[in-house]
Model the fold of this input.
Amino acid sequence: MPTLSRSKRSRINLISAVTHQGTPRFLLRHETLGADIFINSRERLCKYAGKKPLPISDNLCVPHAKLVTAWQAEPEEDIELIYSPSYSPV
Done:
């Protein structure tokens, strides 16, 4: 069984969502998650959800970016982003 050295590791970013029907949706990317990729994932979610999606986002800087805020304010985008609390003890 081949083993990989530490230099051969790769980084994969994951954006996930669950539709109203309970179907999981995933988007895997090798590049750094930016506002453009975040918007693309949300547009794809809107296209396939069938109903108004209510994605829950963490408090990373990407969902709060000016580009994302401006995109969300557009009238043709029927989406509302919900942010998880910045501190949430379990």
About this structure: The radius of gyration is 16 Å. Strands lie at 13-18, 24-29, 56-57, 82-83.
